[in-house]
Amino acid sequence: MPIFSHKFSGLFLGKRKAKPQPLVIEDELETFTMKNPETDKYFSGEIDLPFGKVDIMLEPDGTETGTAQKALQHFHSFVPNAADWDARIKQSAADEFAEKDGTIETWGSCESDSEGETISKEAFMRRIAMNFICFY
């Protein structure tokens, strides 16, 4: 007696579901791709800014549109002012983490038993980097 009857064998021998095609947004500043629209939630790309290479993610406008116009508008308003935004975000982070005396205590390394150190706000701002931005 066969393990599978002929009634069910077609389920296993049938065609596989076609792999979804990537969605692509060609923009004058960058190309953004959603590699698998069935599982991915954002369009992604990468751009060189004055302070370095940054991964960019754009939230889609809706579930069926394949566009991200609102996020692209925010991205385009950010890019010309990227250096200013970088400085403002670093300053805000330094202000948030600074003690009353203006110093910031860093954490030690996870790979070693090293202790953290106390650094100035300026040193902290030089050490941090904006390398990922998500636009909605």
Features:
4 helices, two-stranded antiparallel sheet, 136 residues, alpha+beta, 24% strand, 3-stranded mixed sheet
Order of helices and strands: HEEEEHHEEHE
Helix content: 25-40%
* Percentage beta strand: 15-25%
The major β-sheet equals: 3 strands, mixed
The gyration radius over C-alpha positions equals: 24 Å
- What structural class is derived from the secondary structure elements? alpha+beta
Question: Helical stretch count?
Answer: 4
Q: Indicate the overall shape.
A: elongated
Q: Which stretches of 5+ consecutive residues score pLDDT under 50? A: none
Mean pLDDT, as a whole number?
A: 87
Q: What does this entry look like structurally?
A:
With 136 residues, the chain is of the alpha+beta class. The protein is 30% helix and 24% strand. It contains four helices and seven strands, in the order H-E-E-E-E-H-H-E-E-H-E. The strands form three sheets. The chain has a three-stranded mixed sheet. Strands 1-2 form a two-stranded antiparallel ribbon. A two-stranded antiparallel sheet has the order 5-6. A hairpin with a 2-residue loop joins strand 3 and strand 4. The radius of gyration is 24 Å and the shape is elongated. It starts with 5 loop residues before the first helix and ends with a strand. 9% of the residues are buried. The mean pLDDT is 87.
Give the gist of this structure.
The chain is an alpha+beta fold.
Topology at a glance:
Blueprint: H1 6-13, E1 23-26, E2 31-34, E3 43-49, E4 52-58, H2 69-78, H3 82-97, E5 103-105, E6 118-120, H4 121-127, E7 132-135
